Amino acid sequence: MNTPFPKPITKSETRIGWIGIGVMGSAMASRLLSAGYSLTVYARTPSKSLHLQSLGARLADSPSAVGKSSDVVFTMLGHPQDVRQIVLENDVGILSGLNPGGVIVDHTSSHPVLSKQIFAAAREKGCWAVDAPVSGGDIGARDGKLAILAGGDGEVVNWLSPLLDVLGRTTYLGGAGCGQSCKIANQITVGANLVGLSEGMVFAERAGLDVGQFLEAVRGGAAGSMVMELFGERMVGRDFRAGGFAEYMVKDLGMGVDVVEEEGEGVVVLPGAALSKQLFSGMVANGDAKLGTQGLITVIERINGK
């Protein structure tokens, strides 16, 4: 049976697949289930899917099986190599099972070049691929307020809007890979904000200020930011539970800092991003790879002898 694109998406007919049920992925998949869509999920550790199964999700035994039983398959994975394996691996990857007309939506923060490769491979099979990394952390995922940064075919992205609107607000950036390029730029900006926020808080404390009062005093001025709103109180309360892992920030910043010249485009010099990557790498070296990105303040504190 051909999948429904461009037939309108409906809760009664459109079959959804989901792979990647960590902190972010589980919250996003839960929102689609709660909105009335049927989901088939795959998990390398099946026990991690029990919550979604309790909400009505069905468990498949391979990415290929998810593709075969779905019209749209979402992925929310850790690293580009995970995406390559789950999507493209012969015989067991999503694309090997996906029917013509099916759509893969990759929410992973991955590499723009890989997104272009997946788009091309999907088109060869008569399918479609959209790179749609997100920003907004675990709170945005839970509340359906993610910023979704979409690249690929514009008509396909528009067609997906009933699903994407459940998850957040989508901005179409252009062709395949543009969503990933936007996410890298987003992470460069977020990383710089976290460095500044961490240093400001450490300085305020050393100067004898109440750090919570410091945040309240400056949040309405030029120093205020969404980073401060999302993470400031967590940092004051030493709540370093992950919405996004510190090790993933190293990966994301690395894709910007370590990019090589491609297709005649010059390398971008990013000294601030390089410093952010080094500091987040320090978090990983300290054994804090699985802490949230707000844990960057611990690196600044260690530098200052705390």
Please outline the major beta sheet: 6 strands, parallel
Number of helices: 15
Q: In whole angstroms, how far apart are the ends?
A: 62 Å
Number of strands: 9
Following the backbone from N to C, one meets helices and strands in this order, namely EHEHEHEHHEHEEHEHHEHHHHHH
Query: What form results from the Cα inertia axes?
Result: elongated
CATH topology of the largest domain: Rossmann fold
Mean pLDDT across the residues is 94
Estimate the strand proportion.
5-15%
The computed structural class is alpha/beta
- Classified in CATH, the superfamily of the largest domain is NAD(P)-binding Rossmann-like Domain
Numbering strands along the chain, what is their spatial order in the largest sheet? Answer: 3-2-1-4-5-6
Q: Which blocks of ≥5 consecutive residues have pLDDT under 50?
A: none
Q: How large is the radius of gyration?
A: 20 Å
Specify the CATH architecture of the largest domain: 3-Layer(aba) Sandwich
Number of domains: 2
CATH top level of the largest domain is Alpha Beta
Q: Considering DSSP H and I runs of 4 or more, what fraction of the residues is helical? A: 40-55%
What does this structure look like?
The chain is of the alpha/beta class. It has two domains: 15-175, Rossmann fold (3-Layer(aba) Sandwich); 181-304, N-(1-d-carboxylethyl)-l-norvaline Dehydrogenase, domain 2. The chain has helices at residues 23-34, 50-54, 63-68, 80-88, 94-97, 112-124, 137-143, 154-159, 161-167, 178-206, 211-218, 226-236, 246-257, 271-285, 296-303, and strands spanning 15-19, 38-42, 58-59, 72-75, 103-106, 128-131, 134-135, 146-151, 168-174. A six-stranded parallel β-sheet has the order 3-2-1-4-5-6, with helices on both faces. The protein has a three-stranded mixed β-sheet with strand order 7-8-9. The longest helix is centred in the middle third of the chain and has 29 residues, at 178-206. Residues 15-173 form the 6-phosphogluconate dehydrogenase NADP-binding domain. It comes from Actinidia rufa.
